[in-house]
Amino acid sequence: MPSATKDSTILKIAVEMLNAPETQDKVPLLIEFDQSQPLSSIIQVQLCKPWGLPDPENYALQFSESNNRNYITEKNRNEIKNGLVLRLELSPARTVQEILGKINSGTEVEKLAALEKLSILSSDLTFALEFINKKGLSLIIQNIESGKFSGNCLKFALVTFVELMDHGIISWDILENPFISKVASFINNLANAQDPKVIQSSLSILENIVLNSSGKNLQVENEITIPNLVSHLQNSYQDSVIQQNAIALINAIFSKADVTKRKTIAATLSSKQVRNVIYDNLIAMSEFSRNAPKEGVGTELAHQLYVLQTLTLGLLEPRMKQRADSQEQESQEKIKELRRIAFENDGASAMEVNARRQLSFSKDNTKKLGFKCEIDPMKDFNETPPGILALDCMLYFSRNYQEDYTKIVLENSCRADEHECPFGKTSVELVKLLCDILHIGEPPSEQGQSYHPLFFTNDRPFEELFCVCIVLLNKTWKEMRATTEDFIKVFSVVREQISRALSSSPNSFEKFRQKINQLTYSEITQIWQQERTNREVWESHARPIVELKEKITPEIIELIQQQRLGVLVGGTRFKKYSSRGQRIKEKFWFVRLSPNHKVLHYGDCDEKSTPSIEELGNKLPVADIKCLIVGKDCPHMKDLRGRKITPQLAFSLILKSDSVTSLDFMAPDEQIYDYWTDGINALLNEKMVSKNFENDLETLLSMDIKVRLLDAEGIDIPKDPPPIPDEPEDYDFYYDNN
Amino acid sequence: MTFSKEGKMWVPLKTCKLAVAVYNWKGDVQCGLPLEIGDSVQIFEENGGWYRGFCIKNRSSWGIFPTGVVSIRPCSVKGTGVNAIVEPKDDPLVKEIANVLREWARLWKKLYVERETYRFSAVAKVMRELLAGRRALVAGTLTQDQTRALRLRLVAKLDWGNR
């Protein structure tokens, strides 16, 4: 290989030329592309010369990837990779000149071809700059405005316009009203079928004008009606880009409109008819496409639905930020109505109520509504958020769910214990919580995609949500057997319930109600418990904990050894077996380790006795043990021949001496087997390996860790090691000790 | 993460702080104080990304450690300067259980070595209950009624063990 390939500035590439001026294509060339050479000289020397092309300044290189057909300039040439195939094309300047000529004075066919080419090239910034500099954009605008383009020409012209503006180099303020009207007419003209691309582009153009121009949004608002845009949501093409762009335009107009106009738009949007269009054509469809992610439109549409939801909910912001005024008649009336509905709804007892009213109607019943401030309930709505919005919600609940409302109020006002759930106080807090969960008053974020389908199924979704949640809150309060002291804890559970129920994306309030009713207090505690357990499991594998475990394991093993040797010193009675593994009836022997761990004493014994060391006749110095053998490798297990004995409990000490070769044991149970083999291994300085050893290690270790971490309870262990700063520059400590 | 270069001097904290190590640190710098996760430390002075103080379990040995290795806990301080003593602002029962568990953990290991099998497992069971109960108290997710009931149960367990 030539040494040139080692040089990173030299790339091996191919160049082809498809639109050669001569009749036949030029043969593709393989060239060594030197990144340190100017492009113009590469084109001149390495391409135009071999191909015999005059005027090299008329040519430029282009990428030929499916997703990148940009011209290559000194700025983007570093994107060229080894092995790429590039194209030699007419330079941007020449191409612009050619296209402009065709648009101005070509035949219809030539004009169409030029516009199609233009619509593709316009996404290339290099080309776009050249085209705009040669007044191409103005020409396109004029021709669209004057109606000179129609059919496919119009389509390509609009696409070109969108692409050119997309580079963000030209201000949207250059557009005049006639142009806006013309584009709007493409959208409003529902009678004549338009090419979907025309509608897509027109919607996108108007959205950009609304969002990015100064003051032109009014012109768009005047030209376009919301119902017209809504009808595009149910377009006959089922074109998702049109739907997306239409809703984006609605959002744009909505967000730029003044308060009055906004309310009108919101009223239109929340009308049942429009809601259904949105729900059926966008949400039901996108729910469907969620199962078929190939659709790929999900995210942008979800974002637009999120924006729409945020803007609609944003209309509640003024109420949320408005404090109650004690003198204000309207709110006073609302509180009176709350009282009336709660205590006067029962016609049969009207007489009784009347009688009671005369006694201490106002004071007593207001108290029963459970406000913080019993004398002047208006003060309860002084905090913002939720301000007067809370009162609106309470009234909505009392009017529309009278039965639930009276039940809650009466039930709690009749309780004599500290377990009552004050309706007023909890309602205010709940509305505040809902505002927080739904981020009311915050502008839509750029990335937001979480919209709640059920919010498009009702014209008062927020109030409906409150109605479901206030009933839930009372249910949870009872399940928790809460007292007023537990206010905050109940709300932390309720927040969890609401957030979880919403995140399951229920598509109706009924489904939401079902879901949230399943999430009982005990369900939530279980979820929390599970999360704690998961965290514990994670922590037990966290690096610092694992390190600590490794560090203290030797201490724990030492404890286990002591325990095992204790067992051996205490001694064990074993049943006697013959050297061939035959049980010798009624015969036992006893083995124990001397307290200094140096000698094993053993001898025969009866079924009950526990002989002392002195009573055991035989001695085996530990130093004489060669090794430990277990299971069926033991000498006495060699020849089992189908006898019932299980060799798992057998172990043998193989001795160094020649006279006695081994001491053979058969443990009565697994624990003794484990203890003895561990003990022998400890004596021989071998590793303990039994199942009991593993269990004991785990038990002792985990308790030890837990006790060591007592002070860190509730504190998160970092996932990554904390950064270690550079060492301090000096050690002149303030406190002069140590 | 970058550390401010301004704090080039060792500056005393206005009041001492209590912290717990959330990571292990070998202490491999000059005057370094090695820490194990879970160790409580009392902090007296700071310098950029470093603290200086001692481990509660060995008050005589002062040293320095990176601020990121510990997490500050709420505490009350008695006394001033080098004589200051910090006390965690834990619920008294939470504190009591921690003390008892540390004491029991020692005795419990002795029971193990002495092969007091029955008492060993009985104590382990109660220790785990105390650990779980203490965790619930610290997490603070229980209602007042539940908290009261739990406290009674835990105090009974403590009494059982101290007998």
TrEMBL record, chain A:
One of its GO terms (biological process) is phagocytosis. GO terms for cellular component: plasma membrane. One of its GO terms (molecular function) is SH3 domain binding. Gene3D superfamilies: 6.10.250.810, Leucine-rich Repeat Variant, Pleckstrin-homology domain (PH domain)/Phosphotyrosine-binding domain (PTB). The keyword Manganese does not apply. Transmembrane segments: none annotated. The keyword Ubl conjugation does not apply. Keywords: Apoptosis, Phagocytosis, SH3-binding. InterPro entries: ARM-like, ARM-type_fold, ELMO_ARM, ELMO_dom, ELMO_domain-containing, PH-like_dom_sf, PH_domain. Involved in cytoskeletal rearrangements required for phagocytosis of apoptotic cells and cell motility. Acts in association with DOCK1 and CRK. Was initially proposed to be required in complex with DOCK1 to activate Rac Rho small GTPases. May enhance the guanine nucleotide exchange factor (GEF) activity of DOCK1. This is (diamondback moth) hypothetical protein.
Automatic annotation (TrEMBL), chain B:
GO terms for biological process: small GTPase-mediated signal transduction. One of its GO terms (molecular function) is guanyl-nucleotide exchange factor activity. InterPro entries: DOCK, DOCK_N, DOCK_N_sub1, SH3-like_dom_sf, SH3_domain. It comes from the Eukaryota. One of its GO terms (cellular component) is plasma membrane. This is (diamondback moth) hypothetical protein. It comes from Plutella xylostella.
